[in-house]
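Subgroup meeting minutes
Present: P.N., E.W., G.H.
Scribe: E.W.

1. P.N. recapped why we're keeping a running log of single-chain structure predictions: easier to compare across weeks, and new members can see raw inputs and outputs side by side.
2. G.H. added today's entry (258 aa).
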Amino acid sequence: MLRFLRRAPLVLLPSLVLMAACGKGEKPSAPEKPPEPVVSAAPTPAPRDPDMKKVELPVAGAVKEVSAKVLDKEAGDKTKGLIKVKVFEGGIDVNDATKIQVWKIGADTEEARPGAEGWANRDIDVVPGTWDLRLRYDEGTLCRADGWIRGVAVEAGKLWKAEATLNAPMQYVRVAATLDGKDLADNAKVYVYRAGADMEEQKPLDELWTTRKVPVAAGTYDLKLRYEKDKVTAKKIFKGFTVGGDHGVKKETIALEK
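Output recorded in log:
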């Protein structure tokens, strides 16, 4: 009996080791979830002139509404008048991306040239008369809008000063790409299509490199990403990429596949 007790631990020990080894088995980790898109805070709305009064002039295209006032101010050529239009979209100042063109009423914009033009929020010398103003907002291939203010009366020695609001919502977009969990920096190409487009038959709206910040009009798009470097090729189709309209920056990380 004593001999049996001495040997018992030797019999039980392998079983204990086996149980302990089973207890140490690690559960397979859950698949990594793709990063959620991040949108930075929208910029602060630009101040407006409280003395401006809404005018009932016909508008078209992207122009939503216009407020204006007339002031005494001479142009360099005293026989001319002046116009100055500040342009806003969603409360944000977009003057640096908007040109103002002065057209004769009824002019063919494909065959004729504007009578005068200049940047928004700057004085433009104009011959007295009644004109149509064309507002051309352009931040790039994926973010453009065009609109009109019709029947603007210009007088010599007067400044027609206005604030125009556009309906052209947009965001800045920055797309990043990864492969096997590694950041591909600016080495992947992003092809941007209209949502639902046949990527085999239709050309992309634009092409851009990852990590670049690009202005894009609000809407839904399909993206095709492609990476080729050091004999490694990877790609990904990302459908239903939505762009908002608050002028913030949307950041999206997309994992590519070999």
